[in-house]
Amino acid sequence: MGIADDAVEVRAQGWRTLAALHGLIEAELERALDASAGLSVVEYTVLDALSRQDGWHMRMQQLARAAALSPSATTRLVNRLEDRALLTRVLCADDRRGIYTELTSAGRALYERARPVHDETLERVLDEAEARPELAPVVRALHEAPALLG
Fold it and tell me: Is this structure's pTM higher than 0.70?
């Protein structure tokens, strides 16, 4: 095995470690959010993204990027959340082709109830993962990332 092969294997191992940590976090968040608020992780992600916007709305394309979903998956998710009265769609006043997705007061209230559960679960899982030698370097890198990003 040459140096280039070693570098590829190091990156592949890093990716597998990151994927393992992601899977662990996602499973625990899914369980906690469902039990406390009846939300999936991706539903929470949408409410979170909308709650961070002035006016609590985003264009559908922006929301798809924020939730890491395809346009069609975003539409299906928005339909489900709209059926639950957690968000609504409104036409853009400047561009009649544009559609905004907007958080409703019920969506905002559910988000506010779910956020502490999300944050506490994430903190607990990261603490547990940091105690595992194979995951500790990735968790430490996550803790250092905000300082590196500015």
Answer: yes
Report, as ranges of residue numbers, the positions in the chain whose pLDDT lies below 50. none
Helical segments of 96-135, H only: 105-130
Residues 6+ apart with CB under 8 A from 138: 14, 17, 18, 21, 129
Cα 65–34–46 angle (5° rounding)? 20
Max intra-chain CA distance, the chain: 61
pLDDT of residue 3: 61
User: Strands 57-59 and 87-91, how do they pair?
Assistant: unpaired
CB 126 within 8 A of CB 142: yes
Condensed to tens digits (0 to 9), the pLDDT of residues 1-19 reads 566 667 888 888 888 999 9
Rounded Cα–Cα distance for residues 42 and 89 (Å): 18
Q: Are 22 and 31 in contact (CB under 8 A)?
A: no
Q: How far apart are CA 84 and CA 106, in angstroms?
A: 9
Partners of 99 in the beta sheet? 91
* φ, ψ at 68 (rounded to 5°): 55, 50
